[in-house]
Design brief:
Length: 290
């Protein structure tokens, strides 16, 4: 009679579905040091680092309850590095690295490049004369079939060719026309189950036609100016949970009736630099062998 143990473990299917992974950068060197968007104007050196750390920790706690988080170390001279959404855009192990429009943020590129390379990602770059600001300006629809990509104050239209080349995905160009909503993720959030939350006035008319052609009216959550300036669209959505800065009761109620659970996290210190919840994270694909 054979005494060999029966191997059953390899035949078992995984019991849990993979959690999502996000990249964050602790705000220990965060400050408003310069003005490269309207929100920073009048706020130079007026944010409290202590409060920023508390607010960031709150977001980190809520996020790590439902997702995994990787950290990149902050670097001196790059106070905006906390906004990791601008590091690049990742999908299927490939990262299109950001090339920042403003020289003030270009030093970050090198740190993000090193992190992605040492983490095993295939890193693609856009030429310096073609600014592209990563997930700040390019967002996949929730089912991943198309990529909404902005051109406006930061990323330029020519960057879209590089996105098509990277993934062979359909890219739909959206034009941002309000300087307060200088990144796509400040005014547009594709949500689970085919919903979209957006601030229409941030777009030109042809862009609205594209958005409304894709999302039927019952799937559109239109945000008021009052909520838009609270960065309501700058929301992290994982399954039915939405992590977002403080927003109006009306918008919370609307999201709830659409089946979302809303977790509000005060992010006032980051609003002074023109960012909130979604800007503070970058979505990463499943972990890669190091
Ligand atoms: N101060 C930063 C900038 O102007 C904020 C970036 C916000 N990030 C974002 N994904 N919207 O570049």
């Amino acid at each position: 009679m054979s005494t060999r143990p029966i191997e059953i473990t390899s035949a078992l299917p995984p019991l849990v579905t993979a959690r999502r992974t996000y990249l964050m950068c602790p705000p220990t060197l965060y400050d408003v040091d310069y003005v490269i968007n309207p929100w920073m104007s009048g706020n130079v050196h007026l944010s409290s680092r202590e409060r920023a750390i508390e607010q960031w920790n709150h977001l980190y706690r809520e996020l790590t309850a439902i997702a995994d988080v990787e950290l990149i170390q902050p670097q001196s001279g790059s106070p905006d590095m906390v906004f990791t959404a601008n590091a690049g855009l990742e999908r299927n192990g490939t990262v299109v690295l950001s090339g920042f429009f403003h020289p003030e943020r270009q030093a970050e590129e090198h740190h993000f490049r090193s992190w992605f390379q040492s983490s095993g990602y295939n890193v693609l770059e856009v030429p310096r004369e073609i600014p592209f600001e990563g997930e700040g300006d390019a967002l996949f629809s929730s089912e991943g079939t198309r990529l909404w990509a902005a051109h406006g104050p930061r990323s330029v239209m020519a960057s879209h060719t590089h996105l098509v080349r990277a993934w062979g995905v359909e890219v739909i160009a959206l034009h941002l026309v309000d300087p307060r909503f200088y990144h796509l993720d400040t005014c547009f959030a594709p949500l689970e189950d085919g919903f979209v939350m957006y601030y229409p006035q941030a777009f030109d008319a042809p862009s609205l036609v594209k958005i409304e052609a894709f999302y039927p009216s019952e799937k559109r959550i239109v945000v008021s100016e009052a909520d838009a300036v609270r960065f309501a669209c700058n929301a992290i959505n994982i399954d039915r949970t939405i992590l977002v800065n403080d927003i109006s009761r009306e918008l919370v109620a609307e999201l709830q009736t659409k089946g979302f659970e809303v977790i509000q996290i005060t992010l006032s210190e980051f609003l002074k630099a023109g960012g909130a919840a979604k800007c503070l994270v970058m979505r990463l694909g499943p972990q890669i062998e190091r």
